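Input record (one chain):
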Amino acid sequence: MTFGVRSLALTAGSTGGFADYGRDLGRRRVNVSVPGVAALIANKFTVRPDETVCAVLCGGNIDANLLARVLEQVLVRKGRYIMLKVLVMDRPGMLAGLLESVADSGANVVEVFHRRAMWLAPLGRVGIEMLLEVRDADHGREVQKHLETAGYHVEPEGQDTWQE
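The corresponding structure, as predicted from the sequence alone:
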């Protein structure tokens, strides 16, 4: 990110860290090219005091992997991605039944990890970790409650466990 754009982001209300750019992406935004940044600096459109503006410049200078990681962090911070751990019987069809309950709750499965050794699960059981996409944090809690009502013991994982 160039000095001018970083300075613009700082004056728009962020503190300048990568996490701030991610938080900014979750708010109302204006995607711009260089002329758009100039228009923003020249006050060619109105930004209310309660709004945050993030000018996104795209082209050969963008690191797609970094952008993907920032967007994933936004999804986690906004409660759109949740990680749930469930212990189920190690029998045919148990994973399918769990995933059917997830589908019934309206969540989308992003990733599933089927773990025996890493969890040191009791014999006859297997640990399932699921990365799920939900509408918002409230929907995430509804999904967890739905699974518990269906008879699964659910443990949420992840968010806010790391220091920045």
